[in-house]
Specification:
This protein is of the alpha/beta class. Helices cover 41% and strands 24% of the residues. The protein has ten helices and ten strands. The protein has a six-stranded mixed beta sheet with strand order 6-7-8-3-9-10, sandwiched between helices. Strands 2-1-4-5 form a four-stranded antiparallel beta sheet, with helices on one face. Helix 5 packs across helix 6.
């Protein structure tokens, strides 16, 4: 889905962030439009996760402003801000002593939803992410990694937030499960039209899931483009990612040919 031309849902206005005098982000200017999936791509330490955490005020800028829905986050009630934004991380972060149902229902319950509405929402979300309803009474340790990640997505969607922040949510999964969850994410996004900021270091994942790709390096925004334009970008950092991606595809093809010969 291509971004719209309406006012951005999320906007970084010359944002910098430092820790103990060390710059992590430098003068970031970035807009995220309604209904798009903006992928933050880059190596470890490039500033991707820091950028994500600035949206829901897990961190605050050293300078500049982050705006969400037309207002600076510095002026927002931080609790209400975080409740209005879904958050999905690689480690899932489920409460181990809560059942799956209680984990998913956490934000709606805090927000004062009636029990009947919460129960209906939990069942709806379990179906939406492809999980059986009988898993609702189980605990996180009784589920597979892929199932726990689905629960993490369901919990993030529980209060129907407009914005989803996703920090390498599929990075710890095996390739087959990762592929399956990527397909399910695309299907969900097609029907839900959330505004998503998705962090990854995997170009294949970025090309598959992103409406646009924002490449970061050393705390700076290097380039931002649609997947098709990113593959043709003249920027040297983008070109390096594309070369590595193509080299990986060629290596995988050679390995498949070797296997076929051996068979």
């Amino acid at each position: 889905m291509q971004p719209t031309t309406t006012a951005p849902v999320i906007e970084f206005r010359d944002v910098s962030y430092s820790v103990a005098g060390t710059s992590v982000l430098l003068g970031l200017n970035l807009q995220v439009q309604s209904g798009e999936t903006l992928v933050l791509l880059g190596r470890s330490g490039s500033g991707k996760t820091t950028t994500l955490k600035l949206v829901n005020r897990l961190l605050s800028p050293t300078s500049g402003e982050v705006w969400v829905n037309g207002a600076p986050t510095a002026d927002a009630d931080v609790i209400e801000l975080r409740r209005s934004i879904g958050w999905v991380i690689q480690e899932v972060g489920l409460f181990p002593h809560f059942t799956i149902e209680r984990n998913i229902a956490l934000v709606p319950k805090i927000s004062g939803w009636p029990a009947s509405r919460i129960r209906a929402r939990v069942e709806e979300l379990l179906r939406m992410v492809g999980l059986n309803l009988d898993l609702a009474t189980r605990y996180p340790h009784q589920l597979s990694g892929g199932q726990r990640q689905r629960v993490g997505v369901a919990r993030a969607l529980a209060a129907d937030p407009e914005i989803l922040l996703m920090d390498e949510p599929f990075g710890a999964l095996d390739p087959l499960t990762r592929d399956e969850l990527q397909r399910e994410f695309l299907s969900l996004q097609k029907s839900l039209h959330k505004t998503v900021v998705f962090v990854t270091h995997d170009l294949r994942e970025a090309l598959r899931l992103g409406s646009r790709i924002a490449l970061m390096e050393a705390g700076r925004l290097v380039t931002i483009a649609t997947p098709q334009d990113f593959l043709q970008s003249p920027d040297p950092w983008a070109a390096a990612y594309v070369r590595a991606f193509k080299d990986g595809l060629e290596k995988a093809a050679r390995n498949r040919q070797r296997v076929e010969v051996l068979e």
